[in-house]
Structure formats: structure tokens, C-alpha cells
Amino acid sequence: MTSRTGIIWLVVLALLSAGAAAIFWFRADIATNILRRAAGAGVGAALKAELPEGLHAVFCGTGSPLPDRSRAGPCFAVIAGERVFVFDAGEGAAETLALMGVNAGDIERVFLTHLHSDHFDGLAPLALQHWAGAASTTPLDVAGPIGTSRVAAGLNEAYTIDSGYRMAHHGPEIVPASGFGMAATEFAIPEGANDLVVYDANGVRIIAFPVDHAPVDNAFGYRIEYAGRSIVVSGDTSRADSVAQAARGADLLVHEAISTELNAIMQDAANSNDRRNVGTIFHDILDYHTSPEDAGAVATEAGAGALALTHLLPPTPIPGLDQVFVRAARTTYAGPVWAMRDGDVISLPRDGGLVRSHHMR
Ligand SMILES: [Zn+2]
Ligand SMILES: [Zn+2]
What integer pLDDT is reported at residue 44 of this predicted model? Predict the structure, then answer.
């Protein structure tokens, strides 16, 4: 290296160091300026405006009750044209919906699949966003199995003190008293019937059907139809014929999944570390969830167009672990299969086809 080249390198290095030092020194100002530009887009963001006309599967919580910072508790939403419906709201659901650009004030109704607490422990924060974030004048509409009214009443009661503070602080225009909390309706599938239409308006039809999640009473899956497209969501269930029946010819089957292979590793780890209690739970949950192989078999039986696996058990903190689910499902289903992540959207445009996208701000 000539001395001239050496000097040039020294100057370049000095300039780079000075630049890095300046970025470090002014980082608070730089970040504030980025926020100034991004905030408008973030606050005003609306996922539905970014999607083509049609029916959309929105994955707002692909986790389970087990701890996982990358996945919210069970939450699935459907955008049908202008309408937004949410199916379950586990912990972190309200946050994830907001990060995806779904305004809680736009939610027409929340349907619960069953009353395991991890499927509704994000409901109260969602009702708070629906009210305080959107100045809603009516409570969040929540429909579900027998017991839903009791759950909603309990959550409303728990949030009543807080609501008083907010109304006193922001005033009735920002937080109208009539919009606080949630209003519940309950339904049951009549004896001898296979299913029940629980919503039929504005071109959207939603049908509840029973699944098998014993000892949980009244566990449902849902079929959603709009613009000639259809999505079936299994809810929590062991392998059930009712899911295959409801998903007949559906464009997309959204099915829960428990990997028996990964669950066995977790069970052994719990038992050998003297966590028998946890080990027993890992054993017990196998009989009321569905393996990815069985979810694939259900999709094949139904002739579903694609299979989206969610409610992944156990959690998948290591990159590649989600592919264990996909690999297993592919042994029984030849169509497209994905292990879903929070922020994913599967669109079924009115004109046909299927488009996948990711929306996490
Ligand atoms: Zn569950
Ligand atoms: Zn459950």
C-alpha cells in the first residue's frame, strides 16, 4: 500500500467514525423526526384499505396459553368487504390488531369459539380500544356460547372503576358513556341440527358448528362466506368430522395444531426437571387438540383449497420450528399449507385466487 492510499483510508475511516458518532449523539432527534413522518401513517392506517375487495383472513394471535412474546393469544379476524369480525381475543389481541391497522371501532361483532380463558383474556382491552379509541356509542358486540354473558358482565364490572376515571378526564364526546364495555349475546346449536347461522346480513353469512373440545361445553368452529369465497376456522378441537363437513369446498381452512413431536419434548423436559404439574398438562392437552397430520387429513377430506395452521402448540421460539407443523401436515394434505405468524393476512379476492401478505407496523 502506498502512503497516499494509506492516507485516503485513514480519512475515510475518520469520516465514517465522525458520521457514526454524529448519529449516536443526535439519535434522539433523528428518532423524533422519523416518528414525525411515520406517526400520521401509523395512526391513520387502515388494513382494509390496503386489501383488494374480497374476503380476508387476518391472523391477530397465532399463539396459545404458553408464553411466547412473538405470538399473541388466540385471535383471528375476518374482513369481508367493509365489515370486520373477530373470532376470539386472547391476550395481546387488541395490541396486535392495532399494529396490523385494524381499528377496534370498526369491529362489527366478536364471536367466541369457546370459553377457555385464553380465548377471551384480551377481550376487555379490545372493548376499551373500541370505546376510548373510537368514541363508539354502543358497547362492543360479543356473541358466543352459553356463559358468554356471564364472562362479559364480569369483565364489564372489573373495568367499571376505570371507566369512571376516563369519562371524568376526557368527557362524553371522547368516551360516550353508552359505548363502554361489551354487550353479549349467547347462542346454542339446536338439538339435532348440524349448525346454526349466527349472522346473515350485508352479503356476509357466518355459520357456527360444534367441535369436540371436551370437557369444554359448547365449543364452536365457524364458516364465513362472502363474495363467493369461504373460510372455515376450527376453533379448539380434537380431530372432528364436523370440521371436515363444514369446510367442504372452502377456499381456506384455518385449523389449530399441536405438534405431538414437539409436545413430547416439552413433556419430557418438564418431567425431568421436576415440573410434574406442567408435564401432566402437556400430556392432558393432547386429547383435545389436533395434530398437524390430522389437520391435513381434515383439509383433504373437506377438499379445502388451502390450510393455515394456527394456535400452535407448543410455542416455536427457534426459527424453523414452525416448519415441523408444516412438514407434518404435508404428509396428509397435498394443497398449500402454512404455519401462520401474527401479522399475516390471507386474501381471497372476489375475482378469485389467493394472496398472502404481512402487515405488522
Ligand atoms: Zn386454545
Ligand atoms: Zn380451548
Answer: 64
